[in-house]
Structures are given as structure tokens and as C-alpha cells.
Amino acid sequence: MTVLVLWLAVSSLALAQSSAVQNCFPGCRCDVESFGLFDSFSLTRVDCSGLGPGSTMPIPIPLDTAHLDLSYISISGPLTDTMLSGPGYTTLVSLDLSGNHITTVSPNALSRLRYLESLDLSHNSLASLAQTSSPDCPCRR
């Protein structure tokens, strides 16, 4: 009987994790990384690379997203604060925007990304990257 109860508890936990992944934006891949005692803490890695033109920004992402890959999705023109806003963006630790056609980064584009440690802007059309005017920006030179 105890084994059956334990199996049911583990099965329901697995179902809860898989349901979180099912809420991933169409065309993206979401992987949940669980940590801690009984996997009580989780972070999501969202890969939307190659999503292609026609994607509207911001792309909806899970609230616990730590890593977001938006490489090669045909973002063109300036990167603005409205493109990186919404639920899930404030918890980002890493953001990959490589391989797009970003020409400039607005001064407040990264201001809401308080935990950002890694930003990849390689292979874009940036002429230069000015220091942001926002004191809350995680930008490091």
C-alpha cells in the first residue's frame, strides 16, 4: 500500500512538470530544470531559436524562465523595452539575441532584466553599443 501511495505521488509530480512544459509558446521548446529537496525549485530554459519572421515581441514565456534563446528569429531594427517585457522576462539570467538584425539597443531595453548575467548580441547589425542611461541595467562592459 505504501509503495502505491509513493508511486501515485511521484506520478502526479511528473504530470505537474510536464503540464508546465505544455504551456510553451508554439515553435519554442521549454525544458524545466528542477533543484532542491523533492525538486521544489525549478527554472525553465526556453529555446525559440529560428522561430522566424512574423513572431510578435514580446514572446510569452513561463514565469520561471531563467534562460531564453531568441537567436535567428528575424528581429530587425531597434531593440526596445517593450520587446523584452511581460511575465517571465524579469527572471532571466541569460538572453541570446544573436543572429538577428538588431541595429540599436534603446537605453531602457534591458532595464527590467534585473538578474541578467549573460547577453549575446553577436551577429547583429549593431554599429556600437552605448552605455545605458538606466542605473538598474545589468549591463557590464
From TrEMBL:
<dbReference type="InterPro" id="IPR032675">
    <property type="entry name" value="LRR_dom_sf"/>
</dbReference>
<keyword id="KW-0732">Signal</keyword>
<feature type="signal peptide">
    <location>
        <begin position="1"/>
        <end position="16"/>
    </location>
</feature>
<dbReference type="Pfam" id="PF13855">
    <property type="entry name" value="LRR_8"/>
</dbReference>
<dbReference type="InterPro" id="IPR001611">
    <property type="entry name" value="Leu-rich_rpt"/>
</dbReference>
<dbReference type="GO" id="GO:0031012">
    <property type="term" value="C:extracellular matrix"/>
</dbReference>
<dbReference type="GO" id="GO:0005615">
    <property type="term" value="C:extracellular space"/>
</dbReference>
<protein>
    <recommendedName>
        <fullName>Tsukushin</fullName>
    </recommendedName>
</protein>
<dbReference type="InterPro" id="IPR050328">
    <property type="entry name" value="Dev_Immune_Receptor"/>
</dbReference>
